[in-house]
Amino acid sequence: MPPTLGQGGNQAIEDAVVLAHHADDLPAYTAARLPRTTAVARRAVRVARLDMVGNPAAVAVRDTLIAALSKAGPALFLRGFDGIADWRPPYASGEAHAGKRERERT
């Protein structure tokens, strides 16, 4: 995974959490992780390609757009991390339902 999103360590931690959840079922672990890791890696590659633009005019356009977007709409700029920064660990059997019941009581 390219380091452009700073996700190498984060993905390793997520891997460990999901592996602990599926320790007795490696195919389930693979099924749980593969879509996410593939999507994050593809996004990192896209950002790397944008970062590696060499044409001076394209660099100027890229830098101007990023600066303008980050000043005009920081929330919009941060939406680029949707799907990355919103990961939640898997629930053990019954935990999701218990949490839902607790929320419904309050």
Question: Could you give a short description of this structure?
Answer:
This protein has 5 helices and no strands. It has 106 residues and is mainly α.
Provide a descriptive summary of the structure in words:
There is one protein chain. This protein has 106 residues and is an all-alpha fold. Helix content is 69%, strand content 0%. It has helices spanning 8-21, 26-51, 56-72, 74-78, 95-105. The longest helix is centred in the middle third of the chain and has 26 residues, at 26-51. It starts with 7 loop residues before the first helix and ends with a helix.
Counted by DSSP, the helix tally is 5
Helix/strand-derived class?
mainly alpha
Largest sheet data: none
Uncertain residue ranges: 96-103
Q: Give the strand content.
A: under 5%
Calculate the terminal CA-CA distance, rounded to whole Å. 43 Å
Helix content: 55-70%
How are helices and strands ordered from N to C? HHHHH
| Nearest-integer average pLDDT | 85
Q: C-alpha Rg, in Å?
A: 19 Å
What would you call the shape?
elongated
Count of strand segments: 0
List strands and helices in order, with pairings.
Elements: H1 8-21, H2 26-51, H3 56-72, H4 74-78, H5 95-105
Helix pairs in contact: 1-2
Identify the notable features of this structure and list them briefly.
106 residues, mainly alpha, elongated
